[in-house]
From TrEMBL:
Signal peptide annotation: 1-26
Keyword annotations from UniProtKB, A to Z: Hydrolase, Signal
Name under which the protein is recorded: Alpha glucuronidase N-terminal domain-containing protein
PROSITE patterns noted in UniProt: PROKAR_LIPOPROTEIN
Single biological process term from Gene Ontology: carbohydrate metabolic process
Alphabetical list of Pfam families matching this protein: DUF4838 (PF16126)
GO MF annotation terms: hydrolase activity
InterPro entries xref list: DUF4838 (IPR032287), Hex-like_dom2 (IPR029018)
């Protein structure tokens, strides 16, 4: 059992809001034989959030019972009623306990049940918890067809009407990646009070009552100092990098700024003032570094920093760029405090600012700490994550305003048990006073980066547990999971639970780290297939399907079973076949001659940021003989004349820019850090010999009318592999580099990998079968 789960049992466990309470009053009927016998009271001047809460309560009661309760501004003739109230008279003790949070209380007096809070958002969340505790409803996933599950009850009655719940967090939520409002609505029903949608003025989100922050995500050059406004006249505002000032419009992820430029700082403050004037109702304004590492290399930005106390921060120091950035941001924060007291700035502790600066940040700056490379198989205080834990502790010495910002919901269609990790992390950081947390999660939709539906098909239990537990992390992970399985799968709960338990145990025990961009196929292969779990998992799901289930329960189970079968089939098909030849092949750029005609073509190259195929076809062919392995590569392109690549050819190791192709081949190396060779070629013939490759491997390339081709080869000895035997299985990765538009002199911005294979990480390599 992982250490974080063992230690969790020693901590005080909060009584779950999901547990059935004890009725201290007579039951309050809402419907009898599908007819309404109660009413909902919502003041006429309640505002959009309370009005929405009343509508949600009405619609869900009707959905469960068939009865539509009237919504009235004052008590009417019904025998019972539910009153929705913000800061009502007569509940002083509850209101004091709730304080300035979005907590809530539910109290019954005679035939009246009051759902109350000090904020409208608290009343909305209280409505959902009232429904949850008095029926078997669960918002299992955002899917509008079958994601909300319940047993119809024409005689719906309230029996659990005396409870209070105050969150441990003042900000909690999920940055949903992908289209559709449904995924945000889903998380609000679990208790979230923040989402990426509430960072902009949007009428469709005004009735959710969420915390609102201005400015969105990475925004230095996307919102404040924009290239279209400033670059032509002030290129010096932007970073000097690789010999030139960088125009953010020409870089896919934009650029940072030249943080030592005083004129840029004044322009930035002016832009911020204009934005605050145009949107004055926010309490938090975001100033977030762009999603790139590259910082300005101009003489001023590259020289050592001398601090007020005489200490010097050298350019090679880990905290150099972070110190430089916060010296700049502190200037803006002091202006902000002078002109907008009570408001705060939010910025990332991410990439070069993940390391705290060697100065104290201004108190009106909040830090959104993002340990993106943390091993997600382990909690933050695990030795595997020592560097990120130390950075977190250092930040806590610098600021009392830190948001724990994670990537727990960014995973493909493999069931990663991130709920236990997330809860352990939230519990720990909350013990240090952190009261804000949010994470990224794929929406339950097909988006540009990921098929979120496929991820939800297998991750719904973990996503649901996380979305409920960030209200207060002092919860029991197993109890929350069991609640999900019981409500979603009914009599099949035990079999579905067994399916997940097998995979979880193997996943946590498997070697290697897990990060936000894990390849689902690699996990299925190395955890389930290699662990001989395919049949036990399939049998568990088959047993589950034999139980009598409600239609929506059946749909949830079918989605899980179908995704499991599809992933196993996909992974088993993800193999490259190498054909043995009697005569060494020569380079035929079209591969239309023997022996290349015998080779099988592998062409499933998918984008690194998602699972979509690369729009330009790529083909790989592999041959072998007793001496060498031969790789034939065909990279199609619609406009070879303007295809971006390094056109000058030079001797020595030159990693391609723009178009290029990488081959990784795992061998029997003593050292385990890089047990592979790496060979790279570009259209002009520039070569790069990476780890282990040496200098004797061969490569040539040629530009064609429809793209470019290359051939690479090396001996078995150079690959540190035994002489070949037919049927043997090698392992490798095949990567096509590319750029979406021609940009001379700029490093490649994306790549497509065969079967989603991964660079430098052998657990993400694919199989090469010697025929």
């Amino acid at each position: 059992m992982p250490r974080f789960l063992r230690s969790a049992s020693l901590l005080p466990v909060l009584v779950l809001v999901f547990a059935c309470g004890f009725a201290t009053h007579a039951a309050l009927p809402l419907a009898t034989a599908g007819q309404p016998v109660a009413e909902i009271i919502c003041p006429a001047d309640a505002g959009p959030v309370l009005a929405y809460a009343a509508k949600e309560l009405q619609e869900h009661i009707a959905m469960i019972s068939g009865a539509t309760l009237p919504i009235l501004p004052a008590p009417g003739p019904a025998a019972g009623r539910i009153i929705l109230a913000v800061q009502p008279v007569g509940f002083a003790a509850d209101r004091e306990q709730i304080g300035d949070s979005d907590g809530f209380a539910v109290r019954q007096q005679g035939a009246t049940v009051t759902v109350l809070g000090n904020q409208p958002k608290g009343v909305l969340t209280g409505v959902y918890k009232l429904l949850f505790r008095n029926s078997d409803i669960i918002w299992a996933r955002p899917n509008t067809e079958f994601g909300t599950i319940f047993t119809p009850n024409a005689d719906l009655t309230l029996t659990d009407t005396d409870f209070i719940d105050v969150p441990a967090t003042i900000l909690r939520g999920w940055q949903m990646i992908g289209p559709g409002l449904e995924s945000d609505v889903w998380q609000y029903r679990q208790g979230s009070n923040w989402s990426s949608r509430t960072m902009r003025d949007d009428p469709e989100t005004s009735h959710f009552g969420c915390v609102r922050e201005f400015g969105g995500g990475h925004n230095l050059t996307g919102l404040y100092i924009r290239g279209d406004k400033y670059f032509a006249d002030h290129p010096e505002f932007f970073p000097f990098f690789k010999g030139a000032r960088q125009d953010p419009r020409q870089i896919r992820m934009r650029t940072q700024l030249c943080f030592t430029n005083a004129d840029m700082t004044r322009a930035f403050i002016s832009e911020l003032d204009q934005l605050v004037a145009a949107s004055p109702d926010y309490s938090t304004y975001r100033i977030m570094i762009e999603d790139v590492w590259q910082c300005c290399e101009c003489p001023e930005c590259s020289k050592p920093i001398t601090l007020p106390d005489g200490a010097v921060v050298a350019p090679a120091d880990e905290d150099f760029r972070s110190t430089q950035f916060f010296l700049w941001l502190n200037q803006i924060a002091r202006h902000f405090q002078a002109h907008y007291p009570g408001k705060r700035l939010l910025t990332f502790g991410y990439f070069f600012t993940e390391t705290p600066p060697r100065i104290t940040v201004e108190p009106n700056i909040s830090i959104s700490f993002c340990p993106i490379n943390k091993n997600s198989k382990r909690a933050i205080d695990d030795p595997d994550n020592d560097v990120y834990y130390r950075r977190f502790l250092s930040w806590m010495k610098n600021t009392t305003e830190l948001t724990w910002r994670e990537y727990f919901g960014l995973c493909g269609p493999f069931p990663r048990p991130m709920d236990a990790i997330a809860i352990a992390d939230w519990r720990l950081v909350n013990s240090y006073g952190v009261r804000r947390t949010y994470s990224e999660m794929y929406s339950d939709a097909v988006g540009p980066r990921m098929d979120g539906v496929a991820s939800w098909n297998v991750n719904a239990p973990y996503f649901w547990v996380m979305a409920n537990a960030n209200w207060n992390p002092k919860v029991d992970v197993k109890a929350l999971r069991n609640e999900f399985f019981r409500r979603v799968y009914g009599p099949a709960a035990e079999d579905v639970r067994a399916f997940y338990a097998m995979i979880e145990k193997a996943f946590l025990a498997a070697p290697g780290n897990s990060r936000w961009n894990d390849r689902a196929q690699a996990n299925w292969k190395h955890v389930v297939i290699a662990g001989d779990l395919v049949e036990p998992c399939r049998q568990a799901l088959t047993r589950a399907a034999q139980h009598p289930l409600l239609p929506k329960q059946q749909r949830m189970l079918s989605a899980l079973r179908d995704q499991f079968d599809a992933m196993i089939a996909d992974v088993l098909a993800m193999r490259v076949f190498a054909t043995k030849v009697a005569t060494p092949p020569t380079f035929d750029p079209t591969f239309a001659t023997e022996p290349w005609l015998k080779a099988k073509v592998a062409d499933a190259f998918v984008l690194s940021r998602g699972e979509k195929p690369h729009e330009n076809r790529t083909e790989l062919r592999v041959l072998y003989d007793d001496e060498r392995l031969y790789f034939g590569i065909r990279c199609f392109h619609p406009d070879p004349a303007n295809m971006p690549y390094r056109k000058d050819v030079a001797a020595g190791n030159r990693f391609p820019q723009g178009e290029g192709f990488e081959v990784f081949l795992q061998g029997d190396w003593d050292e385990q850090k890089s047990p592979f060779v790496q060979m790279v070629i570009d259209p002009a013939g520039n070569r790069y010999a990476g780890a282990r490759a040496g200098k004797s491997w061969q490569a040539e390339s040629r530009i064609l009318a429809d793209g470019w081709s290359a051939m690479l080869s090396l001996t078995w000895a150079e690959a540190r592999l035994e002489p070949p035997l037919p049927g043997a299985v090698l392992r490798g990765a095949f990567i096509r580099q590319f750029m979406p538009s021609p940009q001379e002199g700029i490093a490649p911005s994306n790549y497509a990998a065969l079967y989603g294979s991964t660079r430098h990480r052998t657990q993400g390599f694919c199989d090469i079968v010697l025929e």
